[in-house]
Amino acid sequence: MQMQKKSDSSRKVWLWSGFFGICLSFALVWGEQLEKTDHVAFGSPSHAAVLLLLAAVITVLTAYSWKWLAAGAQSDKKNEAAPGENSKAYDLRVWLGLILCQIPVLLAEYPGFFVYDAQTEVTEVFTRTFTTHHPLMHVLLLGGIVSAVHKVTGSYNAGICTYIVLQMLFMTAVFTYVIHCLRRWGVRKEIRIFSFLFYGIFPTIVMYTLCSSKDGLFSAFLLLISVLLVQLQKNPRQFLQSRKKMAVFAASAVLMMLMRNNGFYSYLVFIPFGAALMHRYWKKVLPLLVIPVVVYLMTNSALSAALHAEGGEHQEMLTVPIQQLARTWQSHPEGFDAEDVQILHTYLSEEGLSHYTPRISDILKTYFRNAAYDADSASFWRLWFKMGSKYPATYLNAWFLTSYGYWYPGAVINVYQGNTVFTFTYTDSSYFGYEVEAPGIRHSLLPFLDTFYRKLSIERFQQNVPVVSLFFAPAFWFWCMMWMAGYRMACVNDVQERLLLWTLPVILTWLTVLLGPTYLVRYAVILWYVVPLAMAVLQAEKYRI
Predict the structure, then answer these.
(1) How far is CA 193 from the centre of its chain?
(2) What residues contact 437, with CB distance under 8 A and at least 6 apart?
(3) Closest CA to 506 of 488, 489, 526
(4) Buried/exposed code over 332-358 (b: 16+ C-beta within 10 A; e: otherwise)
(5) Is the torsion defined by CA of 162, 165, 167, 170 positive or negative?
(6) CA-CA-CA-CA torsion sign (167, 169, 175, 181)
(7) Of 156, 209, 375, 499, which has the fewest beta carbons less than 10 angstroms from its beta carbon?
(8) Cβ contact 122:147 at 8 Å
């Protein structure tokens, strides 16, 4: 009987490691082709051979790494750390330490990274002309603070810096709460020290802690949701008896959705899965998950009505179909008959189609005619389906080229190449926006540190260094999370422990960005934020959560 159990366990390990190996090998082989040639050669025998060989190697390495980790988990149980007590002094030291880590970079980049639609958002507040293109809550928060401080001080830089500092205080508080939970759960001190240093000095995290874009706050709220879901799954009865924790969860979910539109869609899909995983408590969990959606819809509608925000833009939701049609028109114009051409030009002009670029749809989608789509969306979808039936490989390549940076660790993030912004032109890299948009002006107080962050942002620099470049790649952290999830499925026997509830909102958010206009770190920075949490719960059964 014991041998049968070991045999079943070993078979399960090989099954899941094989699945992981196949998926990762596809990502590596196809990603390399996209990086070098702008398309995947789906029928290439040589690439198929490489894919199979790579899948076999990854499968073996993955299986043995899981077995080694599982064996280590058993031996470590005797030496697990004792859970720490609540200590406000400890939390305060961690929080102040994280703030101190940020200050040199803030001085180097004063007034902070004011970029990624920042000018557009504050202009909406200055002119009292609002649209639903950007989340209204973030527009009011950013524009309101900049405007209010400018009125008092006469300095836009002071307003920008005030917003950045307030955001930094909140985000470092969330990071502190994560470390607080690790200590409470009895996670080893080495992991907590790593977490502190990771949150405090890793450049990608620091960039978005000090950046005005909505992505940092969005990801901070998503991280807070993730930590609370760990506690809900491990001890549902205790969690559901705590009004404070339920209130913080609901508020975090609402604010997460208000910070970025795709947060609403990922959270909506999460609800049935979350309730199903908590099946014994679904009657109590379901209202907890649904109430934030109701509050979000009411709040967003109220803001839109109060601000008379203009809507009606469809191109953000249609990014992938627009790219697919444009690539098909570029590659196979002979496939369009006269009626097809007429329909296509109803939605996208010939000039607009000439602006097709494989890795980003920002310019092309501005030419999309929303009025035509409002009048007759059916013909758009008929044309899209017709061309997709004719040229499925072209459609796949069009989609992969705007998303492969999220699943191919070797992708160089340079989607803005050739674009001129306020203070420079992107040439070698567009890893991060870096600049300060008007009306702000950069006054670096630590030029040597400013030079370092400039290199990280708009030069190849770290993206050219083997191994090091992986830690700056969103795809690397995604596959680390998939490796962790595979380990849980293969090596953890308890069904309740096997599926990690907290990973679902993160993975669903990752799936939504695959349908976005391009691949950028800003859309996937949550993959960095959850690294300490993933390390802590990798063997969650040994911690007293």
Answers:
(1) 24
(2) 114, 115, 118, 119, 421, 422
(3) 526
(4) eeeebeeebeebbbbbbeeebbebbbb
(5) negative
(6) negative
(7) 375
(8) yes
CB neighbour list of residue 245: distance below 8 Å, 6 or more residues apart: 228, 231, 239
Residue with tokens 């209204």: 136
For residue 302, pLDDT over 50 is answered with: yes
pLDDT at 515 over 70: yes
Work out the average pLDDT over 38-49. Answer: 92
8 A C-beta contact, residue 39 and residue 397: yes
* Lookup result for tokens 């949701």: 225
Beta bridge partners of 360: 357
Quote the CA–CA distance of 477 and 497 in Å, as a whole number: 22
Lookup: tokens for 387 = 């061309």
Query: Which of 206, 207, 105, 260 lies closest to 433, judged by CA?
Result: 207
Cβ atoms of 538 and 223 within 8 Å: the answer is no
Q: Which residues contact 372 (CB under 8 A, 6 or more apart)?
A: 346, 347
What is the rounded (10 degree) CA torsion for 282, 288, 291, 296?
A: -120
Contact residues for 534 (Cβ-Cβ < 8 A; gap 6+): 480, 481, 484
- pLDDT of residue 1 exceeding 50, the answer is no
Question: Does residue 192 sit in helix, strand or coil?
Answer: helix
Rounded (5°) CA angle 276-250-496: 30
Residue type, 385: F
Residue whose structure tokens are 């030419």: 367
Which of 132, 148, 235, 210 is CA-nearest to residue 525? Answer: 210
CB atoms within 10 A of CB 49: 10
